[in-house]
């Protein structure tokens, strides 16, 4: 069975929450190909030793690079702890990334609670479940 490709992204004020979450679910996440925006990916690797493919930092195009994976049907899930209390200079990119998850029916979790439920679902690592991809 091929590994799931999973993207991990967090805004600065949410990085501590994402790190806690990654450590809680490390046994599941180590079975996945992990990709991340630059700073998030560097922190995850440093704090957990997990291998992470790092794209550019979010404000420098990293969200768009992850969006490109979605458009190419190369991403299985996104865990995006975005910050609802601080404006981001690249807000259009953030919206575009979340929008593409809706366009292509990619599972996306934006809070630790949702992320817990998604990653512990019996369907998460199973080949029994494949999201239906829309045809346009
Ligand atoms: O800005 C981000 C997502 O929108 C995250 O980027 P970094 O992981 O480089 O901080």
Automatic annotation (TrEMBL):
It is an enzyme of class 4 (lyase). One of its GO terms (molecular function) is methylglyoxal synthase activity. It catalyses: dihydroxyacetone phosphate = methylglyoxal + phosphate. This is Methylglyoxal synthase. Residues 1-136 form the MGS-like domain. Substrate binds at residues 11, 15, 37-40, 57-58, 90. SMART domains: MGS. Keywords: Lyase. InterPro entries: Methylgl_synth (IPR004363), Methylglyoxal_synth_AS (IPR018148), MGS-like_dom (IPR011607), MGS-like_dom_sf (IPR036914). The active site is at residue 63. GO terms for cellular component: cytosol. The gene is mgsA. The lineage of its organism: Bacteria, Pseudomonadati, Pseudomonadota, Gammaproteobacteria, Alteromonadales. Its EC number is 4.2.3.3.
């Amino acid at each position: 069975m091929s590994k799931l490709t999973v993207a991990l992204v967090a805004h600065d004020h949410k990085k501590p929450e994402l790190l806690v979450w990654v450590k809680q679910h490390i046994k599941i996440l180590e079975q996945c190909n992990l990709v991340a925006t630059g700073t998030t990916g560097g922190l995850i690797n440093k704090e957990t030793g997990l291998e992470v493919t790092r794209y550019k930092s979010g404000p420098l195009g990293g969200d768009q690079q992850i969006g490109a994976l979605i458009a190419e049907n190369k991403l299985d899930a996104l865990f995006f702890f975005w910050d609802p209390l601080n404006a981001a200079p690249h807000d259009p990119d953030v919206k575009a990334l979340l929008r593409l998850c809706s366009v292509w029916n990619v599972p996306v979790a934006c809070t630790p609670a949702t992320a817990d439920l998604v990653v512990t679902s019996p369907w998460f690592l199973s080949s029994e479940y494949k999201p239906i991809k829309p045809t346009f």
